[in-house]
Automatic annotation (TrEMBL):
InterPro entries: AAA+_ATPase, ABC_transporter-like_ATP-bd, ABC_transporter-like_CS, ABC_transpr_LolD-like, MacB-like_ATP-bd, P-loop_NTPase. PROSITE patterns: ABC_TRANSPORTER_1, ABC_TRANSPORTER_2. It comes from Glycocaulis albus. CDD domains: ABC_MJ0796_LolCDE_FtsE. Residues 6-226 form the ABC transporter domain. One of its GO terms (molecular function) is ATP binding. It holds the Pfam family ABC_tran. Transmembrane segments: none annotated. This is Lipoprotein-releasing system ATP-binding protein LolD 2. The lineage of its organism: Bacteria, Pseudomonadati, Pseudomonadota, Alphaproteobacteria, Maricaulales. SMART domains: AAA (SM00382). Belongs to the ABC transporter superfamily. Keywords: ATP-binding, Lipoprotein, Nucleotide-binding, Transport.
Amino acid sequence: MSDPAVSIRGLVRQYQTDAELIEVLSGADLDLMPGELVGLVGPSGSGKSSLLHAAALLEKPNAGSVHVGGIDGLALNERGRTALRRREIGFVYQFHHLLPELDALDNVALPRLIAGESKAKARAKAHDWLTRLGLGGRLTHLPAQLSGGEQQRVAIARALVGEPRVVLADEPTGNLDPATSDQVFDALAAACREAGAAALVATHNLALAGRMDRVVTLENGRVVAA
């Protein structure tokens, strides 16, 4: 069996309020295998976003490790974490966060430009991924000229353009109608499988979660089989 794309061990995440210390993750463990789609479910406030943000190296938990491709990202300094995240991790939010002044092609190419690739190479990769996701005819459209589902597919292309080891998605279909939600999930699943990327998808949609390879849930700050 291949090694995990991501191995999460002992994540602890605490938040201090005026009244108390709240612990949303209490030693969470999870492995994601290459090409595997995993649904992450749990009630609001259970820590799904905290787990995703820690796994994406976007924030540092109070304790634990996140090994991506064998490297513990949490043991790196901020610069090292940023470099590892750009190289190995794609993130899809509930809201697409596309830059309104850039067309679809340049929104997708932007992460590769930031990573230092040439404009020609970055745009070629963006063109490839947008075409794979059925947006070959929308390359020069601004976000405001795209439907909600199209905007989210552009966001998926942006997450995958760097050929990451893992894609983390936080309610990626949460603001879409059911039919569009299914279409966007199908696009995300097909793209991740084609790329061989592991995917962890937080969702309140249990029917959607049930279409993934397996489902885990957050209970009392720990990850358990659903």
